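User: I'm preparing a small set of examples for a lab meeting where we compare how different chains pack in three dimensions. I only have the primary sequence for this one, and I'd like the structure in token form so I can line it up with the others. Please keep the answer compact; I'll paste it straight into my notes.
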Amino acid sequence: MSSHGYESGRLDLPFVGIATFGKYPYVQDWRAIDADVAIMGAPFDAGTQWRSGARFGPRSVREASTLFAFGHAGAYDHEDDVTYLDGAKIVDVGDADIIHTDTIGSHANIEKGVRAILDAGAMPVVIGGDHSINIPCIVAFEGRGPIHIVQIDAHLDFVDERHGVRHGHGNPMRRAAERDYVTGLTQVGIRNVSSTAKEGYESARAMGSDILSVRQFREIGAAAMVDRIPAGASVYFTIDIDAFDPSIAAGTGTPSHGGFLYYEILEFIAGIVKHHPVVGLDLVEVAPDYDPSGSTQILAAQLLLNTIGRILHAKGQK
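Assistant: Understood. Below is the structure token output for the 318-residue chain.
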């Protein structure tokens, strides 16, 4: 005890210090990653077709994540009677280098980062950035498949080409489906006026997609939705924050009303990780300037931490 009756050492409150994700250690040298999970930012938003701003997503989600980093051992969930993230080996490897106006170069740098994480034996968790950053994330899995992609999103993102653009935020699921090691897609939350025409839905289904709206998801429930994912498939999650209703996730470039609530998706993800190995995930399209309250960023950080905790627990690690 100190002379003031406090414990020795630093209290290290959430608003103190450098805002790495969850206040986990920062690893600058990508050749020295030693972790179960590595967080990387991909602050690229030149793939947007309306409101930009997701380039500030990684920084804002990291800052929001400190809310849940009080320095205690793990996160106890009384409903599950599990302490998640207790002793978890998680690192933050910083951001991929982004080259302004250069989609291909920026995507190549993102791919390089994901490959470095995979080569180190860690699971990549990538914070975007617009949804085009999923393209290099999936490319990095070449030779490491097969994988099944679970997309949680308001939009199908299955455009093949539009005025020569093939690597924007409307294209990633089409680019993924073209990869021979991607064995299928589960696309949930797709709704309302969409960026993809009817032909896109037909092409997606022809290429192995299972597409459900928020209302269809709610009708069958999270458990039944988990059962629709092919047995034994290794899963990669790609989560667009606009899958959630703008009442809780206003900070995004293309908000769409009628979206999910937090627990719907957490229960869906929790069900998946109990039955499927998870090989990676990205969370995209957080554009903090559209949500001065910070709620969107907190939602993203909370979902990521709970997802990571459940993945590690399911693996028997922590």
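A couple of notes for your slides: The CA atoms of residues 234 and 277 lie 5 Å apart. The longest helix spans residues 295-314.

User: Perfect, thanks.
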